[in-house]
Amino acid sequence: MSPKRYTALLVDDEEAASQRLSRLLGEYQNVVIAGSARSVAEARAFLEVQKPELIFLDMEMPGLMGTALLLDLSEATQVVLVTAYQEYAVQAFDFGVLDYLVKPVDPGRLEVAMERFFKKSALADRSTSPEDQEDLSLPAELQGKPARETRMIHLESIRWIEGLQNYTRVRLTGQEPPVVVRRRLADWEALLSGDGFCRIGRSHIIRLSALQRTKWVSRDVTKLYFEGVAGPLVIGRSAAVHLKELLRNG
Amino acid sequence: MGEKFIIPGKRQDERVFWIFQISFWVAISVVMLVLFATFRPGQSGTAMTILGRGCTGFFLTYGLSRVYRNPRVRRISGIAKWLLVIVCTLIACGIGTLIWIVIPLVLPIRDNLHETYSGNMSIVRFVMFCFWSAIYFGLEALENANNQAIANERLFLAARESELKHLQAQLNPHFLFNSLNTLLSKEQNPEALQMTQHLANFLRSSLTHSHSLERLEVELDSLEDYLAIQRTRFGENLECSIECDPLARTVMVPPMMIQPLLENAFKYGPKTSAMPLCVEVKARLIHDRDEGSLLVSVSNTGRWVDNPVEGGQSLGTGLDNLRKRLFLTLGESATLQVRREPDRVSVEIRIPVQDRTNLGGTAAKAA
User: Fold this and answer.
1) If you count Cβ atoms within 10 Å of the first and of the last residue's Cβ in chain B, which end, N or C, has fewer?
2) What does DSSP say about strands B335-341 and B291-301: parallel, antiparallel, or unpaired?
3) pTM to 2 decimal places
4) pLDDT tens for residues B16-58?
5) CB contact A50 to B (< 8 Å)
6) Whether B224 contacts chain A with CB within 8 A
7) CA of A88, closest CA in chain B: separation in Å?
């Protein structure tokens, strides 16, 4: 069974802006761009025919402001406002939109918005769609290692978990190398929710309360140092943006 | 001159006036009592009429002050004003004399001072009222000078603020960001795209930062963009990092506090350091018992350059400006210290954090 695909509509009077956004969204294979509109009127015409799950909406367009469209939308449609005006940010959330992005849209920040969208959609879909069939074959890099070993892991000693397709690598306190576990990151996420663990980006869960230091080294490398572990966890740009959002909003 | 600038000082003015008014008339009455007790002792009713005259003086001069304080009167200046003051004083004196002609007629008071028969009391009253007016206008001049100084300072600040707003408007941030967005939509090499994105992020934060305190993380985030741009410029010749503990991110600090330090590092570092230039930003919270401090340091390889002058602006004044800003926004307890080592220069800002009051929500939660 193929993963669920979501349709998106881009609303922006500037063609170049829509082009850029659609290129950035090309990174997300489960998002299909169903169309792009140049004005609120065009967007309304589109919505007569199709009901996209996600709309990227520019605020300032000739004619009607983007926000005029918000009133027409059903709850099934999520909206991300995109604008060069930071001044609207505060009032934007009063409209009940999913997120607010400033132009030029930062790819890392877009990923945070998309994760927010996927999470919200998954919650809405959970009751309706059947469980995906799991593929539990061992990834190539792990083949040839001792197959099964049962051991106890104290929740307290977990510092971070890295996702590797259907397996995960768990880093515990102390000198030991990480433990590889046959469990998906999403399952860990469900298991650990509310224990001071946070998912950041696509492939990491970290124990936020044990985070001691962050070290930005370059655009694509941020090192996280945890209490009880000598070496750092290295995360990429989008996970770093996600972590900053977490730290900002508590 | 805006009247609004004077408002904050008004309560103070009232207080000064009443202190002057009460002490003036109490002092005059006491002096008169002493004089009469010394030179014309034994006359019954003198004390009463002196105190009575003190009271009329008090109220009549209060009336004068209301006239002098009238905005229309305030606007008059020069000889016309002095004439007006003399006329008003004469009228007030005339009313005083009339009152003290009428009072002995209707009330059972023996007036030993004989307002009617000799002009003595009227002359004394006129001299006193003139004396009172002189002091009144002296105080007013003093207060005006004070208000003027405050108003000038505020006008200066307001002018600078509007100048800044004007510049920002001329730059037209929305046009700028929309243009950068269009630029990013064009096919071009990935490095150029990245640099444009960082530039846009950096410009956004430097054009929209607030004038009051903001969380340290706001500036740290924009420094990432700044350093990413510098790395594109320097390539292999630059190593840089921003290290921070999660709690330190939430401390409220003046905006753009670290930026000038980094700019210094990039101004003098490349001239005095072996390559690669190494620039490190560190922010951490330390705790000794109840008191905590935020330490923010910027260090770079290279040597300290002594008071270099470039375009009239020396490094010293840049640091002095930062010191002044820290003092104005956070008070004396915030400090800035320069450490010079043979091959490294570091500047450390220390900001006391008491009871976590200037920590934001995350800190309280994580604590």
Assistant:
1) C
2) unpaired
3) 0.65
4) 889 999 999 999 889 888 888 887 776 666 777 788 888 889 9
5) no
6) yes
7) 12
